[in-house]
Design goal:
Elements (H helix, E strand, L loop, with lengths): L8 H12 L1 H14 L4 E5 L15 E5 L3 H9 L3 E3 L15 E5 L9 H10 L4 E10 L3 H10 L7 H10 L4 H11 L4 E8 L10 E10 L6
Parallel strand pairs: 1-2, 1-4, 2-3, 4-5
Antiparallel strand pairs: 5-7, 6-7
Helix pairs in contact: 4-7, 5-6
The structure holds S-adenosylmethionine.
Amino acid sequence: MRSFLYRKADRYDRMLRWLHGDTLGERFGEIAARIGENRRVLDLGAGTCTLADYLHPSCSYVGAELNEGFRAHARARGLEVIDLNVFDFAAYPDNVDVVVAADLLHHLVPNVNRFLKGLGASAIPMVVICESYPYGASLFTKVFGPLLDNDGVNNLPARLRHHLFDEFTEERLRRDMAAAFPGRESEFKILSERTTPGKERRGWDTMIASFRLAGAVS
Ligand SMILES: C[S@@+](CC[C@H](N)C(=O)[O-])C[C@H]1O[C@@H](n2cnc3c(N)ncnc32)[C@H](O)[C@@H]1O
């Protein structure tokens, strides 16, 4: 069952801003900068389609999201959004230049590597993955976080196990992505809250990784 956070788009947006503060604008700004201009962008697990607000106006955007309330909210903002499971690779729209998966991987546990390999096997010229993972998280956060963050689609027990015993690290994300995107040109950046006053001991690191097919126009 979906948590109260995923039942209302406004509520989800407010919580995200509270949780990630300034780094939210930083992360979407960085993703948009890597995408550049004149690209057709497919945003997988788009949530409320916040990324669309940061893209260069010459880009066209399509969000893929299973949450019908979030899709309705995005459509009311004039955005194109489709009902698509991110594992249904064959159903991805044609003519997409860039696929983005922002804050999605932890929802897909225990099938993260299947997802990454599916993307890696595609001919999409550019893939951008953005994932946040906590440092110094308390036991309370590790248990309460996934309950609050329950999208109602994915495997909650597996996600609880992941956050309690097997949390993402920079090293592991780099390794799994390198295995999924062999031969692609890659770029990694970490946005960290560790230097933010009050967040030195507990907060979030965010990895932004992009993978270009060799020869893809930059
Ligand atoms: C944490 S939100 C991230 C939203 C957005 N990308 C962002 O960065 O704000 C993850 C979203 O992925 C969606 N989602 C989870 N599994 C999915 C799947 N298999 N196919 C499509 N969407 C999925 C959820 O409904 C949720 O809205």
